[in-house]
Amino acid sequence: xxxxxILIVCTANSARSQMAEGLMRHLKGDQFEVASAGTVxxxxxxxxxxxxxxxxxxxxxxxxxxxxxxxxKPIRYxxxxxxxxxxxxxxxxxxxxxxxxxxxxxxxxxxxxxxxTVRDMIREKIxxxxxxx
Length: 133
What we know:
Elements: E1 5-10, H1 16-28, E2 33-38, H2 46-53, E3 75-80, H3 83-88, E4 95-100, H4 112-128
Parallel strand pairs: 1-2, 1-3, 3-4
Helix pairs in contact: 1-2, 1-4, 2-4
């Protein structure tokens, strides 16, 4: 039996959603399949890769994906991590529960310390939120 899917969505799938995917997989991967996507696909920011590597999570193999590739999949939790994604995310018929966890965009001033701050905010949110199967 496959695990329920958590899909984390951001605008460009380059920073917040990528870090959230890595953290969620690390913290809850035994219960859930985890993926991320953007309203558009771009690239994974090196600062996001480095911020997670600092805490032992490797997302260097991640690629940026568009949400279109997930529209026909059953999704237990659809989590938007920015207001733009929440407001512009297409209707996802397979999403059972939609959550909105807005985080500041570290890419607006791409200093590693900003990525670390957002990484820690995401980790805290995941650790403090109950996600029933």
